[in-house]
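Can't paste images in this forum, so I'm doing it all in text. The chain is below; anyone willing to post the predicted structure tokens underneath?
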Amino acid sequence: MKRVFFLILFLGFISLLTGCGAEDANEGNSTDNHIEADNAESNKDTVDEAWSQIEEAGELVVGTSGTLIAASYFDGEGENVDELTGFDVEVMREIANRLGVDVSFEIMGIDGMLPAINSGRIDVAANDIEITDKRSEKFDFSEPYKYSYSTMVVRKGDYSGIESLEDLEGKKAGGGATTIYSQIAEHYGAEVVTYGNAGNEAYLRDVDNGRTDVVINDYFLCKFGVAAFPDFDITLHPDLMFNPTETAVIMPKGADELRERINGALEEMRKDGTLTELAEMFYKEDASQRQTEAIIEIEGLEL
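Text version of the structure:
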């Protein structure tokens, strides 16, 4: 059963390689950018009413993927196999409860969440979405409820010859072509090896067999990936922590009252220990607290 659990967890690891780690596929698509701009303009006079509309409807509609372990995924066995859960999902359920409204979840890909906010299909999105300067130009974020950073999966014996970020030069990094993590690898001179429709375990198996040298990804997802394949000669790099990240609820630009109310609920959850409890439930450590270790900020790379 434990093996099955870790294999399920690993599905989310590759989802992040090609999903949330990307600097939003829709942000890079000119057609979607025009749609976002047009929708943002048409919604300009109504976003300040976002909370009153939610309150009147009695329901907060949240966009999420349902595919990202341990943030948003379907879990359970037998009759409960389709139960949506995860850290982000349970955080939003608790927020809605404290705001006195129901919550419903719209399942969609990460690339559709931001246009869905602008079109009014959903009120907010929660799917391990990182706060970035680029996103903040068009959307508002709550205060962070998860803190993380990037790390590497390398071979156990010699850490794939990588002792510093500069040692990525000339190495082969498995990953998606447009993710933040592949941008980091390329920034330091690594060759990115992409996989198309290969099986999920191919990324880590290739580090094990030497076809590639490293996989760069979110710390928590890397941890789950390594645990899913104990027979592989791979490990988390023990020394390299870089690219600190903050995860938050994303919502329409200018939805000030909605943001304030969500922030108020998050603050209550932080003070009474609910955020810590949920983080430890899904991540086996308190991801709701800012990291105290020295995490390397990457200069000269606009992520």
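The chain is about 40% helix and 20% strand. The radius of gyration is 19 Å.
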